[in-house]
């Protein structure tokens, strides 16, 4: 039986790929490099073997092996495949630098190292009992925030007690796709798209939802803004830049985004202030953190610490499968296995009985 890889190496996490035939190039792309296949090339060894060592932070990392710049494949030496339906290889790096490869589901009888050693953060009771309904305003109602308020009876009849509202801020214009653009290409974190209503109407909607005993969560874009974000000119150092000194986003095929430069502490402070604004001004109860699996974990921890100062029972939902997020910064992470189960039920691949 071949040993599992990646594994702990001399200088970090060691990736190994054994090609069945001669190939031109091999790379590793994943959440740790924004899925950029050009960033981390593997070195050719003997007998069609390719290797690479990377220093990776603690936490869970998803990745694929990229062969000849075009073929994205699962790592043949890693049996752990992510639960998100995207079929990515998965590893967890511990605080000591060890590499964990999950070979079975986590259960009470087999909790795994992380669940044996650590306890998750204390979370507010309401998020433990949340029945969450995700919606984009324009797809759910033609009436904007007023229309949402009118739908609260319907949502309550469904048993919903928590609403997750997708981004409703102004969307960038430059390189926009479609008439309305990607709602996650936010141009101004403090803005409200006038199609949905006014700040007073938003505040009235949230107040009415609270009267119904519902919590309201705002979908927050963690790693990027639109390529024409209002800060790209006034604070270009807040954003990542390419070799031509142009604002860009590392994730491929997303030209309408500008990536945030997490090494800039002023940028971090600006984001935290913007998130705090939506809590103090409108009384949001929490945030769903978009693509937080590529956000530095210490920044997520900074966000949590700051928001707890303004709302003690705030909740953060991480769009990640990283167990470490439970230990340091977030109340919920994703479990893709339920999504796949629902899909199988819908396609009648399994039955309730």
UniProtKB/TrEMBL annotation:
<dbReference type="Pfam" id="PF16561">
    <property type="entry name" value="AMPK1_CBM"/>
</dbReference>
<dbReference type="InterPro" id="IPR032640">
    <property type="entry name" value="AMPK1_CBM"/>
</dbReference>
<dbReference type="GO" id="GO:0016798">
    <property type="term" value="F:hydrolase activity, acting on glycosyl bonds"/>
</dbReference>
<dbReference type="InterPro" id="IPR013783">
    <property type="entry name" value="Ig-like_fold"/>
</dbReference>
<keyword id="KW-0378">Hydrolase</keyword>
<dbReference type="GO" id="GO:0005975">
    <property type="term" value="P:carbohydrate metabolic process"/>
</dbReference>
<keyword id="KW-0326">Glycosidase</keyword>
<dbReference type="InterPro" id="IPR017853">
    <property type="entry name" value="GH"/>
</dbReference>
<feature type="domain" description="Glycosyl hydrolase family 13 catalytic">
    <location>
        <begin position="134"/>
        <end position="348"/>
    </location>
</feature>
<dbReference type="InterPro" id="IPR006047">
    <property type="entry name" value="GH13_cat_dom"/>
</dbReference>
<protein>
    <submittedName>
        <fullName>Glycosidase</fullName>
    </submittedName>
</protein>
<dbReference type="Pfam" id="PF00128">
    <property type="entry name" value="Alpha-amylase"/>
</dbReference>
């Amino acid at each position: 039986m071949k040993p599992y890889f990646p594994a702990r190496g001399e200088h970090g996490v060691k990736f190994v790929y054994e090609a069945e035939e001669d190939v031109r190039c091999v790379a590793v792309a994943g959440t740790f490099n924004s899925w950029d296949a050009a960033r981390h090339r593997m070195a050719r060894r003997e007998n069609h073997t390719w290797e690479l060592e990377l220093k990776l932070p603690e936490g869970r990392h998803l990745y694929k092996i990229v062969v000849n710049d075009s073929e994205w494949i699962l790592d043949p030496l890693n049996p752990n495949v992510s639960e998100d339906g995207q079929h990515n290889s998965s590893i967890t790096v511990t605080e000591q630098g060890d590499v964990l490869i999950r070979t079975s589901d986590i259960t009470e009888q087999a909790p795994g190292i992380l669940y044996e050693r650590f306890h998750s953060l204390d979370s507010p009771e309401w998020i433990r009992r949340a029945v969450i309904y995700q919606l984009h305003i324009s797809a759910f109602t033609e009436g904007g925030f007023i229309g949402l308020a009118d739908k609260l009876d319907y949502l309550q009849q469904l048993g919903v007690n928590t609403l997750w509202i997708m981004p409703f801020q102004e969307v960038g214009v430059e390189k926009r796709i479609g008439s309305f653009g990607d709602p996650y290409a936010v141009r101004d974190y403090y803005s409200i798209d006038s199609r949905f209503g006014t700040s007073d109407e938003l505040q009235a909607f949230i107040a009415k939802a609270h009267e119904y005993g519902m919590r309201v969560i705002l979908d927050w874009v963690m790693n990027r803004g639109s390529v024409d974000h209002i800060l790209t000119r006034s604070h270009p150092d807040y954003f990542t830049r390419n070799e031509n000194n142009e604002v860009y986003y590392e994730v491929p095929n997303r030209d309408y985004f500008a990536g945030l430069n997490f090494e800039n502490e002023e940028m971090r402070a600006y984001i935290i202030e913007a998130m705090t604004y939506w809590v103090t001004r409108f009384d949001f109860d929490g945030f769903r953190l978009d693509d937080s699996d590529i956000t530095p974990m210490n920044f997520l921890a900074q966000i949590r610490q700051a928001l707890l100062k303004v709302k003690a029972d705030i909740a953060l939902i991480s769009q990640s499968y990283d167990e470490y997020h439970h230990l340091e910064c977030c109340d919920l992470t994703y479990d893709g296995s339920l999504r796949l189960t629902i899909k199988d039920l819908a396609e009648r691949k399994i039955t309730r009985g």
